[in-house]
Amino acid sequence: MERVITVTLHKDTAGNYSLSIHPLTVIVSVIDEENANVNVRWVLNEDPTNPGFPNARKLTATFAQVPSPFTITSSGESLPAAENYTTPASGSGAEVATAPVQEAAVGSRENDIALYKYNVVVETNDNKTLTLDPDVKVRRRKITRDTILGH
Amino acid sequence: MSDTQDIVQGSRVDELRKAVLSLKLEEVQQLVYNLPPRPPTKLVTIRVVRDPQNSKEKILQVKQDWSSITTNEQVAWTCPDGRLEIRFSRARNPFAGDSYEVARGGKLYSGKPVARITKEQAFKYVLLVTTPDGFFLTQTVELKVTPPSVPTKARTGKSK
Considering all CA atoms of chain A, what is the largest pairwise distance in Å, rounded to the nearest integer? Predict the structure, then answer.
């Protein structure tokens, strides 16, 4: 399954921006309870009632430390300096998705968990930059419907 | 709130929970995040292959089993062999933005075209792939966008 992370741009009438993200820590596993691969998709939303809508120009999610949970590696290959997921904003929601969570992203024991920090940057049409520092929590135990309802 | 009201509300919450948990994982997520329905998506897969003309060189191979999208559809690009960037001309672009980037194996979604399309139009764009072993490959590709298909009117043929 694809875990969705929604990033929402807010703006007040004085022109101040803020950014919210849900979930702040997304929980993933290598496979879900239906034994399907799990990956992450970021969706950029903007409230149409924001003054001057649309204001968002671009969404970028960056893992400064690689490998990320989604980095596909083969022996003998060098890792990139960082891993970027960039998409322009569009009226219907800008979206970008990762590869599946990799087997090596978390230990092999049932209770193993690994946290990966990344940042989300939204650029606006008036050249403002808003940043958040969320996490991806990878657990060996399969994610379930309850996981989605909880986080 | 009385004990009876608590029990009634508790059982309704349990019923709702059971109903939600009977849905597919994707449906639960759609419901929880109040996601809008996604437009139909047409996939483009970009592979890095050996050049048949020169086996020492690598080239991009673009796989898609469709010829055009309508203004109600979107494109998804993926490259299992390297980091993928997509560039459209800012001046001539069917979508809201002109630059996309995704790590190896990820997927980029264009969103629905925002340009006003009244007849079929072709838009050129550039694929840029950086392989893990350091090759940088590019290819110019064409995307055709057509207006939404209009249901054809039933013909009322005149009998001679």
Answer: 53
**Cα–Cα dist A143/A19, whole Å:** 27
Question: Mean pLDDT in chain A?
Answer: 92
On the question of pLDDT at A39 being above 90, the answer is yes
Question: Cα separation of A147 and A151, whole Å?
Answer: 6
Q: What number of C-beta contacts closer than 8 Å exist between A and B? A: 127
Q: Answer yes or no: are the C-beta atoms of A59 and B68 closer than 8 Å.
A: no
Question: Strand A25-29's sheet: what is its strand order?
Answer: A25-29, A135-139, A113-117
Report pLDDT for A93. Answer: 59
Substitution target from A96, A146, A147 for chain B, most B beta carbons within 10 A:
A96
Distance of CA A27 to the CA centre of its chain: 11
Residue among A70, A84, A99 whose CB faces B101 most closely: A84
Test the B interface: residue of A145, A147, A151 with most B CBs within 10 Å: A145
- How high is the ipTM of this complex? 0.91
pLDDT, tens digit, 9 for 90 and up, residues B102-134: 999 999 999 899 878 889 999 999 999 999 988
Classify residue B70 as exposed, middle or buried by CB count within 10 Å of its CB (0-12, 13-18, 19+): middle
